[in-house]
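Appendix B. Raw example, untouched.
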Amino acid sequence: MDRRSFLRTSAVGTAAAATGTLAAPAIAQGNTTWRMVTTWPRNFPGLGVGAQRLAERITAATDGQLTIQVFTAGEMVPALQSLDAVIDGSAEMSHGAAYYWQNKSVGLSFFTGVPYGMTSRELAAWVRYMGGQEIWDEIYDQFGVKGFLSGDTGTQAGGWFSNELTGIDDVQGMRFRTPGLGGQVWQKMGASVTNLAAGEIFAALQTGTLDAAEFVGPYNDLALGFHQVRKHYYTSSFIEPGLATELVVDKAKFEALPSNLQRIIEDVCQAEYDQVASDFYANDPRALATLVNEHGVTAHSAFPDSILEAGADAAKELLTEILDSNDPLTKRTAESFVESLNILRARTEGTDKTFLDARERFFDLDDLG
């Protein structure tokens, strides 16, 4: 999907949905309608489509007892006000990324992506089996909401730049779109960092308000058209090794649902976490081939070592600051994350990486046939 057709489709969907923007939750014949606001454009590959599919799955699995009406970015509220819409009661659900709300609690960033932190499999293991969900619940309890993992992009791309980066000196003063703890790491490295919603990034690059930007990866970035204004693309991020999206629900309304409907929401979120991951795994490499072969993008697999090393030093410095936080819950979140990562990396680096290294060295499929 090219940028123009994606934006046309998005605009049509926005106009169609706007007529129902102010509708209140409806209860008729035992059926309830909830409103979900998202941070994504309508029909946005992977993320927006995943949010819509999640809503449709809940509606279908409950046989319409709980119908989810989706409002994409800007249809009810601006993208980065989605969580606030649930907190203030304007919506019952939001679909986004927890690190967008780190101004409410730094601890929320740990449930999206941490520089040099957990891969998506590690993150799911921490949340589901190592106490992460319980800590996440405590953070969101302060705001009357509850979060669930709802999507997985895998390791994201490093971003779009005007020129090839030769070292850490090239980062100094760079105006860079990147959110969360990763944004703080790039800032420690010398960049000037800001966060923008998906639909705002292209114009900022085109006008020169931004020098560089990262969003997700080839599947999304192709649709957003970044290749039209930047040609140097770093395909592996060190700040977002396993990004997760979240579904947030109004906790009181969630707990008022019958237990079977609560379970359906939980199970659909878990299914979508894996479904979205498969979508990105299948379509990122194909989108990257399109960017390189049809649009003249120069793909770089990794940043220069001086940038990677500076990023690691900045990440350790940032984690140390958070571990020394005066907020007990933020401190406990970081402690749980670090303790769990030290356990989980034995599997990832000792087993998975060993296999991947062997496959890369010895198993060339071009030799077959």
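End of appendix B.
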